[in-house]
Amino acid sequence: MGRHDFRPLRVHQTATQLLNTERISRTPPWYNVVGSITPAQTLVRTQPLPHQHRKRRPRTKKSSKLFQPQTIYYEEDALRKEFFKDHPWELARPRLVIEDDGKDYQKTDWSCIEQPQKALSGESVVRRQLWLRYNVPGITPAQAYDQARKEFYDLRLQEDVERRVAKEEAMSTGGYFGKSALDIGMELEDQKYERWKTWATREVVDFEQRRAAVYTGDVEGGDTAVDSVPAEYEAAIEEVSDQGQSALGGARVRP
Prior knowledge:
The chain is mainly α and 255 residues long. The chain has helices at residues 11-20, 31-36, 75-86, 122-135, 141-172, 181-216, 231-241. Helix 3 crosses helix 4 and helix 4 (122-135) packs antiparallel against helix 5. The protein is flat and about 125 Å long.
């Protein structure tokens, strides 16, 4: 059917067909009346045309959000986000956030990034950058960020040199610092390589036994002797075990 339904206008015609085919046994009480007085109008209600311009009710603020506090925003938040996005490992450095009297901000002068009473951190870059933006005329935010980062990198390099020199001096007088992070990582990588070499050897043996079982007719391959392994396997095992030195970091020194 289309948009309109004309079945109500064919009620008398449908009832006549049902009586002729004896689908219904009794004549409906309204049959003669509807046959003599035919409905003069369409019984289907037409759909009204929708308005082109519908006024929308303004949305009122829910009562649950009326008393929520507004978002507090500081200019330093965007600077911190930018710095720690570029230097995520700075967040892993331990920091001391305890203050003696709560007035440490009065004892700092950010005209220089190095502060005698405050350790160097990402917050130093943020404060130094903010000071440059408000005290150096004509400087752009990008230039202030680059200058603060350069000063930060110089001080970090100086700290690393001082730490390395102090360690060498201590070791020259008998100091012992144990294994470094690089040595521990190399040992773990060597252990992983040895486990892989054992697994690779076992896989090669199983593969060669299954291949030999195809030619000998032994489907299971459990009774195949190791002597039936061809010369390629022996050469592969010799190349893995004999050549080169012990693995350092998973890389074999080629002859």
